[in-house]
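In response to reviewer comment 3 from the previous cycle, which asked for concrete evidence that the modeling workflow produces usable outputs, we include below a single protein chain processed end to end. The sequence was submitted unchanged, and the resulting structure tokens are shown without manual editing.
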Amino acid sequence: MQEIKAFNEKRAEIYWWLSSLLAKELTQENIDQYHSAEIRSFLTGLGENESLKPAVEKLTDALNRLMDREDAQLELAADFCDLFLKSDKDSALPYASMYIGKSGLLNDTPAKEMLELMTEHGFAIDENLNEPADHIAIELDFLGNLIIRSNELAQEADLENALEQQESIIRQYLLSWTPKFSAKCQSFDEFGFYAAVVMLMVAFLELDCSYLKGE
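The workflow returned the following structure tokens.
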């Protein structure tokens, strides 16, 4: 059980990391960290998994090009706004509602269902995010919290049930729409940093489901 719980901590960290990338624009300090040996080593480790390798290579390439990009922080912030904050026709809005429901984000079924799920598990939306519950950053943050919560379980059978539940949630609430979201990001993100992040996210979601099913 201790090995599973230790691995759960790593899983949660990756979900929180992905959530932070998609929640708001990166600061100059954030960008400097991504050029550090520690972060590059972390990405190299992820890339050792064949399922994640293509996305990690794209993300690493974007980071390398970012080092030579003039006004890198401002340009990357503009990429974030253009990709995630414009209209549905001009960008890839990061809400489940845009891909599996009707328009009207706050009132649509995916946002309501995710909010109900979070409430059921005793979680609330981070006030700093100020987004509906079907925003990708909120869903990823929720997953990380759910994983850490399961580490509090003392019985192996309860932990196994929690892992099964996590796999079901990932498939129902994230993999039901994130591949479409990723495809749209590839279309609109010319520089490619955020498209690579979302591509890596989808690959990790799929890999995580395989792990949770014991494949």
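The chain has one domain: 2-212. We consider this sufficient to address the reviewer's concern, and the full set will be provided in the supplementary archive.
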